[in-house]
Write a structure and sequence with these properties.
alpha/beta; five-stranded mixed beta sheet; hydrolase activity; Ppx_GppA_N; Exopolyphosphatase
Length: 507
């Protein structure tokens, strides 16, 4: 089947971007190319709100550059959207005509409502957050939405963005008085929307300024995990980054790790927006969504085929993507899951391990991806499994959840587990670490019962006899490889339940 590629060009007030997606087997879109140009079209708006000739030329030259890149792909569709600066330009009709004439592209100018809506759509279709407030700071506008149970309730676009707010500062380093002025202004603006006040929900941020804030925070903390999507911060973290940046001399700002040079002069006003909004809604946390307007536009396209704008199972779809990418066997997954559930229930009901419903959710997720690292190298499967799951974005999982999944799915033995968890030890209490180890040992043992992927072990029964756990395994066919592997692995189970385990393989 021929690969299907789609492209979107996003014409913002500060930056312009070309993103090319490949459509996956399951229908979702995977980003394969991301080209950014700092056009700063906002600075070409005249006092009468017309985009001047130099601005139109910058726009067209950038679009032509993007076309050179996209020409290497056989594209099914190219979508070109523009936001605040083109929307506010009095001569937008002339801009549309010039763009079509010189590039052949039909530019779609998004309304304020559409811009806010696409941000919301991207968040609910790529995270597990069901209720929250989104914020997307562009160069010339800021969109906020409130959604509840994944349904859009309210949306608004403010006529200020990072470039316009920059005008509050006479120089790149703001004075205390200038910071007070911008904070008062933002508090006043957000207060005009009563539905923002005291929501006590997550504040989900979209866009380049939010990404830069997160990257700086990760660098300051020497954050050990890769990935930005669904990264969580709190108001103290935002204040810490803000204080760090405002303490620097202007010439030091562009050299800050995690901060793009083209955002060095607009990051401080952008952070003020995040912090003011955080306080207004009394947010319980700040979360970054790497998926934004561009993804929202394509999610709408996909929804026409699905018949719904909301993906019903964000996390399940993301796990399915991994199953496809690493060519995992669905039949084996379901069989290992069945055996694991039988063992889990017995250990729980007989008090051999303290297990909860939440533990089963963790174990079930991990069973889908158990030792996917074999795809790369069977000998170092555990290492590859851990690295891939811990450092790959999984839509619907926050970073700590992703790490738990990686630790369970990659379990080999206690020593290797300790190596994997070492950089993250402070993330978990000792009891939590022990629980993850026990869940990993249980999954690894079940996995050994289908070592040759033939589903030879059909049924499993457990019994406690004379302070020993006797596990009877009913087989259909030769189960010697399974017997060898599970005898090797059972010692980890024995340590977890503090009992000897006897395995009986019967035909």
């Amino acid at each position: 089947m021929q690969k299907q590629y789609y492209a979107i060009i996003d014409i913002g007030s500060n930056t312009m971007r070309l993103v090319i997606y490949l459509r996956e087997k399951g229908g979702r879109l995977k980003e394969v190319e991301n080209v950014k140009a700092v056009a700063r079209l906002r600075t070409f708006l005249e006092s009468d709100n017309t985009l001047n000739t130099a601005g139109i030329q910058r726009l067209i030259a950038t679009l032509q550059s993007f076309q050179d890149v996209s020409a290497t792909y056989a594209l099914q569709e190219v979508v070109c959207v523009a936001t605040a600066t083109i929307r506010q330009a009095e001569n937008q009709e002339e801009i549309l005509i010039q763009v079509e004439k010189q590039t052949g592209l039909t530019m779609r100018i998004l309304s304020e409502e559409e811009e806010a809506y696409y941000g919301y759509l991207a968040v609910v279709n790529s995270t597990s957050i069901s209720t929250g407030i989104t914020v997307d700071i562009g160069g010339g506008s800021t969109e906020v939405t409130y959604f509840e149970n994944r349904e859009l309730i309210k949306a608004h676009s403010f006529p200020f963005g990072a470039l316009t707010l920059k005008e509050f500062f006479a120089k790149e380093s703001p004075t205390s008085e200038e910071l007070k002025q911008i904070r008062d202004y933002l508090a006043e603006q957000f207060a005009t929307l009563p539905w923002l006040r005291n929501r006590e929900v997550p504040l989900v941020a979209i866009g380049g300024s939010a990404r830069n804030l997160v990257q700086i925070d990760q660098n300051l903390k020497k954050y050990p995990l890769a990935g930005l999507h669904q990264y969580k911060m709190y108001d103290t973290d935002i204040i810490h980054v803000s204080n760090y940046l405002t303490s620097l001399k202007p010439d030091k700002l562009p050299k800050v790790e995690g901060l793009s040079k083209d955002r060095a002069d607009i990051i401080i006003p952008a952070i003020e927006v995040f912090h003011s909004l955080y306080k207004m809604i009394q947010a319980d946390c700040f979360i970054l969504s790497r998926k934004g307007l561009r993804d929202g536009v394509f999610y709408e396209q996909l929804s026409k085929e699905m018949g719904s704008i909301l993906f019903p199972n964000v996390l399940e779809d993301s796990i399915q993507e991994l199953i496809n990418d690493f060519d995992l066997d669905p039949k084996q997954i379901l069989h290992v899951q069945y055996l694991t559930r039988k063992l889990f229930d017995y250990l729980k009901e007989n008090g051999l391990l303290h297990l909860t419903k939440k533990d089963w959710t963790l174990l079930k997720r991990a069973s889908y991806l158990c030792h996917l690292g074999e795809y790369i190298d069977a000998e170092s499967s555990a290492q590859h499994t851990f690295y891939l799951l811990a450092n790959r974005t999984i839509d619907g999982l926050m970073h700590k959840d992703r790490l738990q999944l990686a630790l369970i799915a990659s379990y080999k033995n206690k020593t290797v587990f300790k190596q994997f968890i070492k950089p993250y030890k402070q993330w978990f209490l000792k009891e939590e670490q022990k629980k993850l180890r026990h869940l990993g040992a249980l999954l690894k043992f079940s996995y050994c019962l289908d070592a040759t992927k033939r589903q030879v072990v059909k049924e499993i029964n457990c019994d406690i006899r004379k302070d020993k756990l006797v596990v009877t395994l009913h087989c259909d066919g030769d189960a010697k490889p399974e017997e060898y592997q599970s005898e090797k692995q059972k010692k980890h189970m024995e340590k977890a339940i503090k009992k000897d385990v006897e395995l009986n393989f019967v035909s």
